[in-house]
Each structure stands twice: as C-alpha cells, then as structure tokens.
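Sanity check. The docking grid for trimethylamine oxide depends on where the pocket ends up, so I'm generating a full predicted complex first rather than guessing from homology. Inputs follow.
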Amino acid sequence: MKKITTALAAGAMALTPFAVLAEDSSDPIVIPIHNWSSQIVMSNVVGQILEQRGNNVEYVTTDSQAVYESVRLGDVTMELEVWEGAFGASFRAAQEKGGIVDVGDHDAVTREDWWYPMWTKDACPGLPDWKALNDCAAVFATPETGGKGRYLDGPVDWLKHGQERVAALDMDFVVINAGSAAALWAEIGAAEADKKPVVVFNWTPNFAEAVWPGEFVEFPPHEEGCDKDPAVGINPDALYDCGNPATGYLKKAAWEGMEAKWPAAYGVLEKISFTNPQIAQMAKLVDIDEMEPDEAAEAWLAENKDVWESWIQ
Ligand code: TMO
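Predicted complex below; grid placement will be based on this.
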C-alpha cells in the first residue's frame, strides 16, 4: 500500500491495474508442522484462514530446527512459532545466510525451561532456586539414575542443551530426552497421585499451566552470548551456564520470496498476532479435549472470529 500511495502522490498515473491488484500465486503455501500442540493447531488455524481467502495451502511435517534452512531456501513458506529459547539460534543462523525474513512478533511472551508441579516444593522447599534444586537432587533419583536426580528434557530436536547445562553448573542430575511432548505430560500425570517430586522441561504458553500449577526453576539469568562464549555466564569455561530467556519472543518468519509470490497472504501473515491465552487454548483443544488438529483449528476459528476476521479485510 505504501508503494502505491507514493506512486500516486508522484503523479505516476500510468501504474497498471496489475501492479495494484497483484494476485497471489495459486501454488500452495507450504506450512510446516512440528511436535507440540500449539504449533500444530496454530498452523492449521492460519492455513484455514488463508484457504478461506482463496490461497492453496499444504502442510508438511518437519524437524523443528532444520525448518529454518527449509524456509530460507523457499521449500517451506513460513514458520508460525519461532520460540526464542528453542529456535532463536537456528533462526539467527538462517538469517545470517539470507533468504528468511522476520515477519514480526506475536503478542505472546514465552518461557521454556526446567519446571516442576507445585507439590514438588514440599520435598524441596528451597525451590525455585537452581542451587536448592541441586541440593535436593536425591529426591528426584530413580532406579536408573544411580543416586542422581532425574530431569526429563524435551525431545532432542528442541535442542534444550540440558546435558550441557548440568555439566556447566556441575549439577547432580541425569538428563533424559523425552521421545515426545506427550511423554512430558505422562511424567507429570504419573507423579500426581502420590505427589512425587518431578522436574521436567515445560513452557508457557501451554495447556499445562491450567492443569498443574507449577513454577520454572530459576537458573542464573539468561545472558546474551551464554550459548556462544564461555566467558559469558557464571562458569567462565562453559557454554549453557544460564537459564533460557524468562521473557522470550514468539516470532513469525517467512521465506523472503513470499511477499512477491503471495502478496496478499503475506499481508495477512504480517497482521497475525496471538496472545498467551489464545495459544494455551489452542494446545488445550488437542492435549485435553483430544481433538484432531484440523478440528481444533475449526473450533478455535469459530469461537474467535473477532480476533482474526480483521486480518483478512
Ligand atoms: C519448542 N517448545 C515450545 C516446545 O518449547
């Protein structure tokens, strides 16, 4: 719009209607799907919005780190949930190579880190401090951990670096990667009846906060460069000696060529912004209500017309 206004102001009336009414390509817009529920539902929500306004949409299941290279190359058109903690590094690396653009932040503020359900505090009253957690490591021991505490980290592709953090902070914990997000919820659910202390990877916004009140462990605060420069952080010889960002961003990213190929859809993507409660609700429809992602998206769109209808005007 800005370009057109400027051209008219300059008296460039020879502008062809084609330039004004540039249409989206009928090629499918490729939306990647990963392995946590809000991302899957949000991708379906946005896919259905774009289909309503006439775009063709295709979904592909991809690795959540490798996707930044795929977006950069244009094999995938966009990424709707760039979590700062898990994917900031891969997003920045792709940006430096070129081909991927930052399409702005969602309203949501995110956090991803070690987390425990509130009953865990009864067994380890010094929480949420990480040193207190470490002093209590034995209460998290299982037959497999040889007296050390068990920490269930996220699936490997989220690159949470739990193992590196344990080493950098000299903690008495064994890090195990969950095979799926569902394994994290199963671990918390299984501990609930006996109020067994557990510490697992979790994040917000998520459905879990409405089901299990809990807290994040407070590690040394995140510092820029903590994952790249050993000098940064409390251990001068190690990377990953700090927590994840406590107030992280949630970005949208797109292939650089999207704006020229699907200008109207790109305009919609620029306007899209979800809040913490909206994203937690998307996850809940799948993780609690057990809907299929496409049905969850339909339900979400039906209940939230006031949120998204203005985006396609
Ligand atoms: C990438 N995640 C939101 C699951 O931490």
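Relevant for the grid: Confidence is low (pLDDT under 50) at residues 1-19.
Also worth noting: The first helix runs from residue 2 to 9.
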